[in-house]
Design brief:
The protein has 943 residues and is α/β, with parallel strands linked by helices. The chain is built from 39 helices and 25 strands.
């Protein structure tokens, strides 16, 4: 494959605001989505607004090309891939505007469902569509696929809750369907389109048989073909057009903005698991459960229950049964207040007790118990997809049938798994809607497997359509089911759909091969290759859940892209494409390795528990020279001296004009490399203080591990720093502490681990854990650390070592935020309160589950605690923010802008706090505000 592509699009037509990317690394990185299809685009366009999309349409049409929109990349059916022009609609179009006290919200297609719901939460509202991929799927995809989810059914999906759309038609016409004169504007700009839509409606209405079939099909969840029910539900061209575009998968128009009617959040929730002896019993119970008004009724078949029994936190109701032909229904009761929940729960339990259950029914409101139950449902994907053989693809499919046909459909589906030898496949899903998902693993690199997949698909189509169902309920038709639209709808309705496509997109420039295809074999074309790569990431399913939280997403690559490019390089090497391999490798060093913050946030979001930072650390270790490894190993031996020297150097630099020092470091970076020499600027603090002296009183209640960054970096302004503040608070609370021997020479190991310097990391691990084991009196005392990232680093050290030193499992290591909130705060008196305080949670407080403690401490000293809705990892990442300041600038851009607005609206915050010194430096640099550790503020206000 050529690595130098000249895109044939006229730049004058595209305009100056639309960027065109044709480097191989850009094209390959954006080619992959969550589906099992793979096409490599010739170029990637990134327009900034609706007008830019209209110009892209003109340029693509003039060049005789086609285009496909790509946003979150969580689609499963192949609707977001192309071998022609890919249009990135996630980089821009992220705006969110809440209106009418949350009753309405205007959203760009690049915003995720979670981001929108976060903004709506303060109003007690949320979006109707509730897809499981809400962490990463964007509004553009939700509308394009008419996504639903576990609770919304067909009453609160996009089709039912969209108030209006801002559309860009293939002709270039931009139409706001919410405008009072929208119909007049459409008729003036596109008279043939307006008339054509009404003619199509008349054609459908004239066929009672077709009308009845459409009504039956769309009485279920149904994302197969176009939503021709819109021709029956509406009688004016704008409303018909608006609702045809919903679910059209980017084949009819572009949605530049959507205005939703939101739904009420019912915050009081009780969850339970109903275990039945047979699937038939579970299905027989469905009508009565639906009549109870349960918000969710999720099915788990016997295979699912067997998988669940292998989960670490499996509920007792599943662990204690010998699974045979059992099935379970995960149910929830939602209510507006506690009184309503109590009444609804009592009625539900009374009904449950009439059912033939294998385990006594129970509803719980306990957060931990509810999370455990949902982990059973959501952990299925992790367990099955994560354990699949290397080189295979995990296929998550969905179908829908009338609820009274669900039993026979599931029974027959289980038979098909056995017939086609899809071992370990599970069935789960939205039972109250007749919509189930099934998960199977397949490989597409040999003819035998491909033939099996072809046979299975034929049997599946026969089964679902034979039960009066739809081949796609909520994942979209895509490429996978496009050849079967005619089989499901018949000639009359399929021809009607083709006429809709030709009416709106006569040149056929939008996403060809998706939704409609006359090639019966097209679902077998362009199947994804999955070459084996590094073990840390080989199980990646390319779902994209990791991407929204990645700090480098807007400047270089995301975790998914880092992984898929390893696969692309492995494939290029297998194919002997040395030119492509060379180009990808050259660009990957900076974009894939140097600018990864290795913050671990991707691991928090990943459904198969991949921390892409583990891959990057491995690659850094492989790239590190023996000399570098030796230098870092020597540093581990004398770390106390190294940190003191670093602190002195920063203090000296602080006394010299910043431009002079910056110039010297720029010269060093030019000579030795930007990933070797940090860039000094005026935003860096002076050096820190000397580490505390060792002490070990007999009545000690905790061990204090003062982070070495307190020696390297001084506090903000004239503060005392988190290390001294924690010790002062512990003393004030009457809690004696142990300070380990050689405290100044101990480190959590992150500087070595993040750089892949393994010898030094191993040396430091051995020394630190041995010291903490002794200081804690063999695990009797908890270890408290004053920097969240260092606490997380110690946890990683501990997890790595317990296999060889099992006694270390007795060590309890805790962040200062959680320890102080629980043990110290109740013994303190806040003498002065602040009016308002801004909080920056960190990736480490998230990983540690300490963000709640951070905000609790902030609330103890301030009347208003402000946490930016757009907060994220600052990417300072130890020294990464000094090596690549552009990374931190990109990572903090959204949060810093939000903080600036909030600061101005409130007339200024009284304090800005976080839980880690380097994060505080990063946020101070980004916002120009003095971020400090929350314990410093607490210590000052409790004197």
């Amino acid at each position: 494959m050529s690595t130098t592509l000249a895109h044939p699009l006229d730049s004058a037509v595209l305009g100056q605001t639309t960027t065109v990317s044709s480097r191989s690394i850009d094209r390959f990185a954006r080619a992959h989505d969550a589906s099992h299809y793979l096409l490599i685009p010739d170029a990637v366009l990134t327009p900034q607004d609706a007008e830019g999309v209209a110009r892209a349409f003109d340029a693509v049409r003039a060049a005789g090309r086609t285009l496909t929109f790509r946003s979150g990349g969580t689609s499963l059916s192949g609707q977001g891939v192309t071998g022609d022009i890919l249009v990135d609609t996630r980089s821009a179009f992220r705006h969110i505007a809440v209106e009418a006290d949350g009753a309405l919200v205007r959203v760009g297609p690049g915003a995720t469902v979670r981001q929108v719901n976060t903004r709506l939460a303060r109003f007690g509202r949320k979006l109707g569509p509730d897809p499981a991929s809400e962490i990463a799927c964007t509004i553009g995809g939700v509308i394009a696929n008419n996504s639903s989810g576990m609770a919304c059914g067909i009453t609160e999906n996009s089709y039912r809750t969209v108030d209006s759309l801002l559309l860009v038609l293939p002709s270039g016409t931009i139409l706001d369907t919410g405008a009072p004169d929208a119909n007049a504007r459409l008729r003036a700009a596109e008279p043939a389109l307006a008339d054509g839509l009404l003619a199509l409606r008349a054609r459908l209405v004239a066929s009672p048989e077709a009308v009845a079939f459409v009504r039956a099909q769309f009485a279920m969840k149904n994302t197969m073909g176009y939503g021709v029910n819109s021709l029956l539900d509406f009688d004016d061209p704008v409303r018909i057009l608006e609702h045809l575009v919903i679910g059209s998968e980017g084949t009819l128009a572009f949605v530049a903005e959507a205005r939703f009617r939101t739904v009420e959040i019912r915050p009081q929730i009780a969850t339970g698991l109903l275990v039945f002896t047979t699937l038939a019993d579970a299905m027989a119970a469905l009508p009565g459960l639906v009549a109870q008004g349960l918000a969710t009724v999720e099915l788990l078949d016997a295979a699912s229950l067997r998988v669940a029994q292998g989960l670490s936190d499996v509920p007792a109701s599943i662990a204690e049964i010998a699974v045979d032909a059992h099935a379970a229904l995960l149910v929830e009761v939602h209510a507006s207040d506690a009184e309503e929940l109590a009444g609804a729960s009592a009625a539900a339990i009374a009904h449950f007790e009439t059912l033939p259950l294998a385990v006594a029914p129970k509803l719980t409101t306990d957060a931990a118990e509810r999370a455990s139950l949902w982990h059973v449902r959501k952990g299925l994907y992790t367990a099955v997809a994560g354990a699949r053989p290397s080189g295979t693809t995990a296929l998550l499919e969905d179908i829908v049938v009338p609820v009274d046909r669900l039993l026979v459909t599931c029974e027959r589906l289980i038979e098909l798994f056995a017939t086609h030898r899809y071992d370990g496949s599970v069935i789960f899903g939205h039972a109250k809607d007749g919509n189930v998902h099934f998960l199977l693993n397949e490989r597409f690199d040999d003819e035998q497997s491909l033939a099996r997949y072809r046979r299975f698909t034929a049997d599946l189509v026969e089964l679902v359509l034979g039960q009066g169902g739809s081949l796609k309920a909520e994942h979209g038709t895509g490429r996978i089911m496009a050849p079967f639209v005619r089989r499901q709808y018949g000639d009359f309705l399929t021809d009607l759909m083709w006429d809709i496509k030709r009416l709106l997109d006569p040149a056929g420039i939008l996403n060809p091969g998706v939704v409609l295809s006359e090639d019966p074999e097209s679902y077998l074309h362009d199947l994804k290759r999955v070459p084996t790569v590094e073990s840390e990431v080989d199980r990646c399913v390319e779902c994209g859940y990791c991407e929204p939280t990645c700090p480098s997403k807007d400047i270089t690559l995301t975790p998914r892209q880092r992984i898929v490019l390893r696969r692309d390089m492995a494939w290029a090497e297998e194919q002997g494409d040395t030119a492509l391999l060379k180009e990808l490798r050259a660009d990957y060093d900076y974009e894939g390795v140097q600018t990864c913050a290795v913050d671990g946030m991707c691991g928090v979001a990943c459904p198969v528990d991949i921390n892409t930072g583990d891959l990057v650390r491995r690659l850094r270790a492989e790239e590190a020279s023996r000399l570098e490894d030796g230098v870092w190993d020597a540093a581990a031996k004398g770390w106390g001296a190294v940190t003191r020297i670093g602190g002195v150097a920063l203090t000296l630099a602080d006394a010299v004009p910043a431009p002079l020092v910056t110039g010297v470091t720029r010269l060093g970076r030019a000579m030795l490399g930007s990933d070797t020499v940090p860039l000094y600027d005026a935003g860096l603090p002076r050096g820190g203080s000397r580490p505390p002296r060792p002490v070990s009183p007999a009545d000690a209640q905790a061990v204090f591990f003062g982070a070495c960054i307190g020696t390297m970096f001084g506090p903000e302004g004239h503060g005392e720093g988190s290390r001294d503040a924690v010790m002062a608070l512990l003393d004030r609370a009457g809690i004696p502490i142990v300070i380990p021997d050689d405290a100044g020479g101990l480190c959590c190991g992150t500087p070595w681990k993040s750089k892949g310097q393994l010898s030094g990391y191993d040396r430091m691990t051995d020394r630190v854990l041995a010291s903490l084991w002794e200081a804690s009196r063999q695990g009797e005392l908890p270890v408290v650390c004053d920097a969240a990232s260092c606490t997380e680093g110690l946890h990683v050290m501990l997890a790595k070592s317990v296999a060889e030193r099992p006694e270390y499992a007795g060590l309890v290591i805790e962040d200062a935020t959680t320890y102080v909130a629980r043990e110290v705060l109740p013994r303190l008196t806040v003498t002065t309160r602040l009016e308002r305080i801004a909080v920056h949670p960190t990736c480490s407080t998230t990983a540690l589950g300490a963000t709640g403690a951070l905000t609790t401490l902030a609330a103890a000293v301030a009347d208003e605690v402000y946490v930016p809705e757009g907060w994220g990892c600052c990417a300072f990442a130890g020294d990464r923010g000094m090596l690549h300041p552009e990374l931190t600038a990109s990572a903090t851009a959204v949060e810093s802008a939000e903080v600036a607005v909030a600061d101005a609206e409130r007339g200024g915050f009284d304090a800005f706090v976080s839980a880690n010194r380097t994060c505080e430096i990063g946020m101070s640099r980004a916002t120009g505000k003095p971020y400090r550790h929350v314990v410093e503020v607490l210590e000052e206000l409790t004197r």
